[in-house]
């Protein structure tokens, strides 16, 4: 089955603003109802009582410049 992106947003934020967004997300996840919003889009989703939770830290190196970039990802997966 091909992947269908239902919501995506990306912007630059301070570390404090990122932490605040994660706290707000955690509170919604705990309740089970999550609302994802951006200036152009909104999506609601219900998170089940039990789901798979993955944390991943990656280091990527640009092949041309040698510059290193890090990605810290929190992912929640479930099936319906």
From TrEMBL:
Source organism, top-level taxon: Archaea
Amphi-Trp domain: residues covered: 1-80
UniProt cross-references to Pfam families, sorted A to Z: Amphi-Trp (PF20068)
NCBIfam families, sorted: amphi-Trp
The protein, known as: Amphi-Trp domain-containing protein
Higher taxonomy: Archaea, Methanobacteriati, Methanobacteriota, Stenosarchaea group, Halobacteria
């Amino acid at each position: 089955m091909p992947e269908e992106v239902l919501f995506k947003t990306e912007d630059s934020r301070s570390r404090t603003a990122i932490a605040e967004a994660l706290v707000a997300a955690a509170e919604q996840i705990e309740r089970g109802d999550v609302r994802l919003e951006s200036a152009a889009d909104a999506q609601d989703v219900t998170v089940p009582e039990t789901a798979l939770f993955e944390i991943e830290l990656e280091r990527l190196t640009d092949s041309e410049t040698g510059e290193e970039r890090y990605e810290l990802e929190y992912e929640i997966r479930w099936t319906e």
